[in-house]
Write a structure and sequence with these properties.
Layout: E1 5-11, H1 18-28, H2 37-42, H3 49-59, H4 66-82, E2 85-92, H5 94-98, H6 104-116, H7 118-122, E3 125-133, H8 138-147, E4 157-161, H9 173-181, E5 185-190, H10 196-204, E6 210-213, H11 221-229, E7 233-236, H12 238-243, H13 255-260, E8 264-267, H14 272-275, H15 279-290, H16 294-306, H17 314-326
Parallel strand pairs: 1-2, 2-3, 3-4, 4-5, 5-6, 6-7, 7-8
Helix pairs in contact: 4-6, 8-9, 16-17
The structure holds adenine and zinc ion.
Adenine (ADE) binds near residues 14, 49, 192 and 270.
């Protein structure tokens, strides 16, 4: 579906399509342990978050130069534009690159080159959010924040991702305090595989403004009531939840119940190359499987802009919201 929308939960490394992975591997002299793109696609069968992360980090070996990151981001922006994305807040994982000897400056400058011309080329405004890997130490996260110092003019906020269970938000209290002092916006993955309690902790200890996923809040009615009352945005990723087996089938996704409870839900793609679709494909899937009404689709589109960090550019947000109001969602 190509109605106007913002995408707020998108790992740029998760947009690496098999064709680009092989092209970059050839260019950089990296040998992939797969015969061809079809064999690689065959490996996209995951039992849980960790089994996905193992492949996701391994494939990053092909990303080496600033140009590689520019190409990666350009490919995403072109696909996103075709699916109606007007604004994208894009995650990247600096530690997954610095550990391989690729400096954070190479990553930020490479991505930045694509984002700088995103508006002109694709009609998409962008923000960049750097994520800390929660299965690495808090010290490593703090080192990463310091290393990002020279690039903070390009970075809007910080996030927290990777293996969730056993790595509660509170582990990163200090680095989030420092991020806040630096004027960075704060989000965190919570309640994807981890318990509802991690969502509370992300809000109360890390001071986050949005929860990435937040799916498991539905297990805690009191938390649902709080999230609705405080209008805390949840960046849901329905196809990701099915592929990572957080839910059995898309029919089991609680999106309708979440909307009915007054939650500020948004729909996003997470790692679209790995999970079977970009954000428009996620919308198509939930519309068809959960029988969403045109009104519900409009609410989700509106939420995506309201939950965005466009509060530094209200005239633009108003323009996007006007596009949403003018769209005929019966056609969606
Ligand atoms: N869905 C996800 N959860 C946690 N970390 C991630 N990194 C990339 N995708 C992720
Ligand atoms: Zn994610």
């Amino acid at each position: 579906m190509a109605f106007p929308k913002a995408e707020l939960h998108l790992h740029i490394e998760g947009t690496l399509e098999p064709e680009l992975a092989f092209a970059l591997a050839a260019r950089n002299g990296v040998t992939l342990p797969y015969a061809d793109t079809e064999a690689l696609r065959e490996a996209y069968r995951f039992d849980d978050l960790q089994s996905f992360l193992d492949l996701y980090y391994a494939l990053m070996a092909v990303l080496r130069t600033a140009d590689d990151f520019t190409e990666l981001a350009d490919a995403y922006l072109a696909r996103a534009a075709a699916q109606g994305v007007r604004h994208a807040e894009i995650f990247f994982d600096p530690q997954a690159h610095t550990v391989r000897g690729v400096p954070i400056g190479t990553v930020v400058e490479g991505l930045g080159a694509a984002l700088d011309r995103a508006e002109e080329r694709y009609g998409i405004s962008t923000r960049l959010i750097m994520c800390f890997l929660r299965d690495e130490s808090a010290e490593s996260a703090l080192d990463t924040l310091r290393a990002a110092g020279p690039y903070l003019d390009r970075i809007t906020g910080v996030g927290l991702d990777s293996a969730e269970v056993g790595h509660p938000p509170a582990k990163f209290r200090e680095v989030y305090e420092e991020a806040a002092r630096l004027g960075l916006r704060r989000v965190a993955h919570a309640g994807e595989e981890g318990p509802a309690e991690y969502i509370r902790e992300a809000l109360d200890v890390l001071g986050v403004e949005r929860i990435d996923h937040g799916l498991r809040c539905v297990e805690d009615p009191e938390l649902v009531e709080r999230l609705a009352r405080e209008r805390v945005p949840l960046t849901l990723c329905p196809l990701s939840n099915v592929r990572l087996r957080t839910i059995d089938t898309l029919k089991d996704h609680p999106l309708r119940e979440m909307l009915a409870a007054g939650l500020m839900a948004t729909v996003n793609s997470d790692d679209p190359s790995y999970f079977g679709g970009y954000v428009g494909d996620n919308f198509d899937a939930v519309r068809d499987t959960l029988s969403l009404t045109p009104d519900q689709l409009r609410t989700l589109a509106r939420n995506s802009f309201l939950a965005s960090f466009l509060d530094d550019d209200e005239p633009r947000r108003e323009r996007y919201l006007a596009e949403v109001e003018a769209y005929d969602f019966h056609l969606a």
